[in-house]
């Protein structure tokens, strides 16, 4: 059995290793790093950033007060009226007062008893710099939080792929089929779907390609991979002479080591962002001789088409040849020949309902 490259929920089973200067590369793209990281790490980093900036500017305010002499005993707030001392910042007693003043300045929550004076130009300059720094940090945080909450990836939680794929006949051809659905009322605009077959391949030169990808041709209801995605749709890959499954019978397919990765892409109607949903099927998840149950019917009472998602993964067994697509095509060719003998095909052993 092949190990998955893409899990059923769409996550890629890829482990990155031995990347030179990995941390530096991630820090150079800090915005994407914080958006992709888990919430606890993002909030922890922002908490450290805020507290660090408060403490840094509190130290600067303390140094300004200390170098100006505001922290001397005769120049403290309770003695300033008697000594006639004019401090850089009013009502500063020590580092704790500087820390509180730093928070008030950075978040523009309004000065109380502590405020800058015209005595020290450097204090006015630092006040302006801290206000600008606070706005930058808050804007950066708001942008990160908004980007995390509106990630298109979250929209994929309401996009569904059928648990299994099936193989059955449709219009005389063997077809591989799976189903996709969208549970939301807001639709995916310009939806398109494609599938990649991943399996080992040996080249003519003897090179082994363990993860060779082949594009599978898909259609839905006679159309190409572009979907009018208003209800669950059955996506069809016709097993013809151009299909990599053309020479595989039911038994061969069970023994093959392959993975079919399906990718649904489109634009979210409500946000205008592009989203991508993924899933995959391995050989053991392909049911030969089954087809999907209908899930869409017209509800006369509610005057609308009703989708029954309880049957989204349901399949029913049907008579299907166990031979390969190539053998089936040859069988039909012999049947059309005027001098052909009686030819029979093995069919899947279907239990009675």
TrEMBL record:
It is found in: Membrane. Residues 6-152 form the Potassium channel inwardly rectifying transmembrane domain. The chain crosses the membrane at residues 41-64, 123-147. GO terms for molecular function: inward rectifier potassium channel activity. GO terms for cellular component: monoatomic ion channel complex; plasma membrane. It comes from the Eukaryota. Belongs to the inward rectifier-type potassium channel (TC 1.A.2.1) family. This is Uncharacterized protein. It comes from Acanthoscelides obtectus (Bean weevil).
């Amino acid at each position: 059995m092949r190990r998955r490259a893409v899990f059923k929920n769409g996550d890629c089973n890829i482990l990155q290793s031995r990347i030179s200067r990995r941390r530096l590369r991630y820090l150079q793209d800090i915005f994407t790093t914080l958006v992709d990281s888990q919430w606890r790490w993002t909030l922890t980093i922002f908490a450290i950033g805020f507290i660090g900036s408060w403490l840094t500017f509190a130290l600067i305010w303390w140094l300004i007060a200390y170098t100006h002499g505001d922290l001397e005993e005769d120049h403290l707030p309770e003695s300033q009226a008697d000594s006639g001392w004019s401090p850089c910042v009013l009502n500063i007693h020590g580092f704790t007062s500087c820390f509180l003043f730093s928070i008030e300045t950075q978040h523009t929550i309004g000065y109380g008893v502590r405020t800058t004076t015209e005595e020290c130009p450097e204090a006015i300059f630092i006040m302006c710099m801290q206000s600008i720094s606070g706005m930058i940090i808050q804007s950066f945080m708001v942008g990160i939080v908004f980007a995390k909450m509106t990630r298109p990836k979250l929209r994929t939680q309401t996009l569904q792929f059928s648990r299994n794929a099936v193989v059955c006949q449709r219009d005389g051809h063997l077809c591989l089929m799976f189903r996709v659905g969208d549970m939301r009322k807001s639709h995916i605009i310009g939806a398109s779907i494609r599938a990649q077959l991943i399996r080992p391949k040996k080249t003519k030169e003897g090179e082994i390609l363990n993860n060779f990808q082949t594009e599978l041709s898909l259609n839905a209801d006679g159309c190409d991979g572009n979907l009018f995605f208003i209800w669950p749709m059955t996506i069809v890959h016709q097993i013809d002479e151009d299909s990599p499954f053309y020479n595989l019978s039911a038994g061969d397919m069970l023994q093959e080591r392959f993975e079919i990765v399906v990718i649904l892409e489109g634009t979210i109607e409500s946000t205008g962002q592009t989203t991508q949903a993924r899933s995959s099927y391995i050989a053991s998840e392909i049911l030969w001789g089954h087809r999907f149950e209908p899930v869409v019917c017209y509800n006369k009472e509610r005057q609308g088409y009703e989708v029954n998602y309880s049957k989204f993964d349901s399949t029913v067994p049907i008579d299907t040849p166990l031979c390969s697509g190539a053998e089936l095509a040859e069988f039909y060719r012999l049947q059309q020949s005027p001098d052909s003998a009686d030819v029979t095909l093995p069919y899947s052993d279907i239990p009675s309902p």
